[in-house]
Design goal:
Number of strands: 15
CATH superfamily of the largest domain: Fructose-1,6-Bisphosphatase, subunit A, domain 1
Number of domains: 2
Structural class: alpha+beta
Strand content: 15-25%
CATH topology of the largest domain: Fructose-1,6-Bisphosphatase, Chain A, domain 1
CATH class of the largest domain: Alpha Beta
Order of helices and strands: HHEEHEEEEHEEEEEHEHEHEEH
Oligomer: single chain
Helix content: 25-40%
Length: about 350
């Protein structure tokens, strides 16, 4: 930001407060949750940057509910997120990709305002930490009808279209906090000199070009034939739209989605033809990213249905996922349905 631009200076907290003033009936409860996630992400960012110095590189030796071996940073970030949020009286429950079950709170303090459930993947792409590649945090917020005696798993199993906010934090060459409350997508970059997230990308829109194609190409032989055809069309097609398309895949959903959101492109983690299953988690990864992509003018699908319309059946449900420019996602759906 140039010196002359400081009159337009907005921190994350200031921008949230500004948006809150646009809704006179707001009591600031929802804003408090976003602020706490912002605080937690600053702490996680600090730990990520010091990973090699504070002994949080490598594996913990614990297998999580996904059947994956947890990294030390997974557990540390999980604790940071839960500790930052659990004391808020408006939080009825938390669900983390790293935990087998949801966490339900019955607060002793009487609170008659809106209540919320927060879903999060504390460290997405944690296997990249040891090789110094960007990782991130993904979060999603749902409103919850608070009844302490009856809240259970059903309150957690809501479709993505019911989200009231979603976002991610990418820990890379800079740390960025990107979120939506259904009123556009806004990005904030952490200024290490003042310790605040500063508005750097207001009203983000995905460019209408397919600059990048992001997929784990090592699974190519396990993709259904229409999926392989789509990948070949985008990467090797002779259409002018794809003449300069490059393949870029980091293994970190946050990093890949962020790059494509800024530059234009499509991310894909389709179903495995052998198992018929996807890999990414609906509630912790796909639904939050789908809300962001749609708010930025893009599209997110399984190839057969809109991600935000899926009714979850369990906390750790996995689904196929393709997200990015509408042109490519619609083309993929047509190919999968045999219409192109």
């Amino acid at each position: 930001m140039s010196e002359s631009g400081w009159h337009d200076f907005y921190t994350l907290e200031g921008y949230i407060a500004y948006q809150q003033r646009l809704h006179p009936s707001s009591r600031g409860v929802f804003s408090d949750i976003l602020r706490r996630i912002g605080v937690a992400s600053k702490i996680i960012s600090s730990k990520v940057r010091m990973a090699g110095l504070i002994n949080v590189l490598g594996k913990q030796g614990v297998i999580n509910v996904q059947g994956e071996e947890q990294m030390k940073l997974d557990l540390l970030a999980n604790d940071i997120m839960k500790t930052s949020l659990k004391w808020l009286p408006s939080i009825s429950g938390l669900a983390s990709e790293e935990d087998g079950e949801m966490t339900i709170f019955t607060h002793t303090d009487k609170f008659d305002g809106d209540h919320y459930i927060v879903f999060f993947d504390p460290i997405d792409g944690s296997s990249n930490i040891d090789v110094n590649v960007s990782v991130g945090t993904v979060f999603s917020i749902h409103r919850c009808p608070y009844q302490s005696q009856t809240i259970g798993e059903l309150e957690f199993l809501k479709p993505g279209c019911a989200q009231v906010a979603a976002g991610y934090v990418v820990y890379g060459s800079s740390t960025m906090f990107v979120y939506t409350t259904g009123q556009g997508v806004h990005g904030f970059t952490l200024d290490p000199e003042i310790g605040e997230f500063v508005l750097s990308h207001e009203s983000m829109k995905i460019p209408d070009r397919c600059k990048y194609f992001s997929a784990n190409d090592s699974h190519y032989r396990h993709w259904p034939e229409p999926t392989r055809r789509f990948a070949d069309w985008v990467r090797y097609g002779e259409e002018p739209r794809y003449e300069k398309t490059s393949s870029r895949y980091t293994g970190s959903l946050v990093a890949d989605i962020h790059r494509n959101l800024v530059e234009g492109g499509v991310f894909m983690y389709p179903e495995n033809e052998d198992t018929g299953m996807g890999k990414l988690r609906l509630l912790y990864e796909c639904a939050p990213m789908a809300m962001l992509i749609e708010q930025a003018g893009g599209m997110a699908s399984t190839g057969k249905e809109r991600i935000l319309d899926i009714q979850p059946t369990h906390l750790h449900q996995r689904v196929p996922f393709i997200a990015g420019n509408k042109v490519e996602v619609k083309l993929y759906e047509k190919m999968l349905q045999g219409m192109a």
